[in-house]
Design brief:
The protein is α+β, with helices and mostly antiparallel strands and 64 residues long. It is 45% helix and 12% strand. It has a three-stranded antiparallel sheet. Strand 2 and strand 3 form a beta hairpin. Helix 1 crosses helix 2. The radius of gyration is 11 Å and the shape is globular.
Length: 64
């Protein structure tokens, strides 16, 4: 099953750990994606919150 089909499992705002589990990546990799500009987030550095819309755009752009 593709990740785009599983998007309904995500909440409106997701922490770094939630996104890492969803994408099957480490939290450090998620932070690297954020620094590189692949993912947009809100909040302070130690508590990043990712929107469902930015995760969906990331999945579409990466072809996951």
């Amino acid at each position: 099953m593709f990740l785009i089909e599983k998007l309904y499992l995500l909440k409106g705002a997701n922490s770094t750990l939630d996104v890492a589990k969803f994408l099957n990546r480490s939290p450090r990799t998620i932070r690297r994606y954020k620094v590189a500009g692949f993912l947009e987030s809100n909040g302070p550095k130690n508590r990043l919150l990712f929107s469902k819309k930015s995760i969906e755009a990331f999945i579409i752009a990466r072809g996951l």
